[in-house]
Amino acid sequence: MKGRWFLGVVSGFLFGLLLGVTLFLFGAVPLHSQWLWILPLVGIVLGLAMAAWAPFGSGGGDAAPATAAPTPSTPTQTDTTLEHDVVPAEPTDTAPDQPDDV
């Protein structure tokens, strides 16, 4: 099987288990319901299916390598402020005014 099947099993089981607990706590499913046993098993099956189907970084290498976009040598129309054009903000005096003859 290609992919991370163990991660799919564990995450599917936890998803099904916590979904059953949530449904029980909100009163949608009684405690003696079979859904509390079925949901974790369905979660395991769905986790295995997702692990087999989805390429979550399994190192397949089927995709073409990404190339970096070329950097423009001249500034574009949207880049109107350059680094040397930026004027630093003037410092503001945050201290309260005090009389000089204290």
Please provide a written account of the structure:
The chain is an all-alpha fold and 102 residues long. The chain has a domain at 5-53. The chain is 39% helix and 0% strand. The protein contains two helices and no strands. The chain has helices spanning 5-25, 35-53. Helix 1 runs antiparallel to helix 2. The longest helix is centred in the N-terminal third of the chain and has 21 residues, at 5-25. The chain is elongated. The relative contact order is 0.15. The model has no long low-confidence stretch (mean pLDDT 78).
Give a short synopsis of this structure.
With 102 residues, the chain is mainly α. It is built from 2 helices and no strands.
Strand content: under 5%
Return Rg in Å.
30 Å
The first-to-last residue Cα distance is 83 Å
The count of strands amounts to: 0
Q: Please state the structural category.
A: mainly alpha
Indicate the overall shape.
Answer: elongated
Low-confidence stretches: none
Number of helices: 2
User: Biggest sheet, in brief?
Assistant: none
Helicity range: 25-40%
- Average pLDDT confidence is 78
Order of helices and strands: HH
Secondary structure topology:
Elements: H1 5-25, H2 35-53
Helix pairs in contact: 1-2
Keywords:
102 residues; 2 helices; mainly alpha
